[in-house]
């Protein structure tokens, strides 16, 4: 099975080299998709002798992921963020789950005091909405550390260009009745203000309801 790591990045020149180095310990096929960064993310990534794709303007995380996936001819993909909030040491667990035949693999962060309260609260609301709407008891709906097969990708292709991509993936996976498993990962927050806001959370739940209604119609 050819597995490719897809790393979407935006203004991550301080972290991208460390992330790539961590991923290289477990995967040789790596694609960084720079989403219109204004710093030296592209140059730093290219110096690591991996595939680097570049959006001239910022299109959003969903668009960056799609660019990387559709460029590759991989059998499966592991998505990992470029901001050091996902520990690459979990990659072997994702690989094992894919090899065991799961369509998708979701990472979930341990809920503890290192996770900002507003994110803990928002994540809980989104998780419960996911379970109610799609009968998927996902433990961390907004975690971007996840994996899926090429076949699964064809069934979960998303329209979201930004951070709503995580929710749309889950909604599409639920509608397609894909098999999945979940893996606990380290909870790392280098910047407590980074991530989805309260407004983002409200929009995510609203979108999930809309995606469900569209399925019913």
Short descriptors:
single chain, 217 residues, Spore Coat Polysaccharide Biosynthesis Protein SpsA, Chain A, 8 helices
Commentary on this structure:
The protein has 217 residues and is of the alpha/beta class. The chain has a single domain, classed as Spore Coat Polysaccharide Biosynthesis Protein SpsA, Chain A, CATH 3.90.550.10. A 7-stranded mixed beta sheet has the order 3-2-1-4-6-5-7, sandwiched between helices. Helix 2 links the parallel strand 2 and strand 3. Helix 7 runs parallel beside helix 8. The radius of gyration is 16 Å and the shape is globular.
What is the number of beta strands?
A: 7
Number of domain units: 1
**Order of strands across the biggest sheet?**
3-2-1-4-6-5-7
Overall 3D geometry? Answer: globular
Query: Main sheet, how many strands, which sense, barrel?
Result: 7 strands, mixed
| Order of helix and strand elements from N to C terminus | EHEHEHEHEHEHHEH
The fold-level CATH name is Spore Coat Polysaccharide Biosynthesis Protein SpsA, Chain A
As a whole number of angstroms, the C-alpha radius of gyration is 16 Å
* Average pLDDT reading: 86
The amount of beta strand, in percent, is 15-25%
Portion of residues within helices: 40-55%
- Determine and state the CATH class: Alpha Beta
Number of helices: 8
Distance between the termini: 37 Å
Low-confidence stretches: none
Q: Supply the CATH superfamily name.
A: Spore Coat Polysaccharide Biosynthesis Protein SpsA, Chain A
CATH architecture: Alpha-Beta Complex
Coarse structural class: alpha/beta
């Amino acid at each position: 099975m050819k597995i490719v790591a897809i790393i979407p990045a935006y203004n991550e020149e301080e972290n991208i080299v460390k992330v790539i180095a961590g991923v290289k310990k477990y995967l040789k096929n790596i694609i960084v998709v720079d989403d219109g960064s204004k710093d030296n993310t592209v140059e730093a990534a290219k110096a690591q002798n991996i595939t680097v794709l570049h959006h001239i303007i910022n299109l959003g995380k969903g668009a960056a992921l799609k660019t990387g996936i559709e460029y590759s001819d991989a059998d499966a993909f592991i998505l990992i963020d470029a901001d050091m909030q996902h520990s690459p040491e979990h990659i072997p667990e994702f690989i094992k789950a894919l090899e065991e035949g799961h369509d998708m693999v979701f990472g979930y962060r341990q809920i503890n005091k290192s996770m900002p309260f507003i994110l803990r609260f928002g994540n809980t609301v989104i998780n419960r909405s996911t379970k109610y709407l799609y009968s998927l008891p996902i433990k961390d709906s907004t975690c971007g550390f996840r994996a899926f097969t090429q076949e699964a990708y064809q069934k979960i292709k998303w329209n979201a260009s930004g951070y709503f991509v995580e929710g749309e993936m889950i909604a599409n996976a639920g509608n397609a009745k894909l098999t999945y498993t979940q893996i606990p990962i380290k909870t790392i927050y280098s910047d407590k203000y980074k991530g989805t806001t309260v407004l983002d959370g409200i929009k995510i739940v609203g979108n999930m309801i809309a995606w469900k209604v569209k399925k019913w119609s």
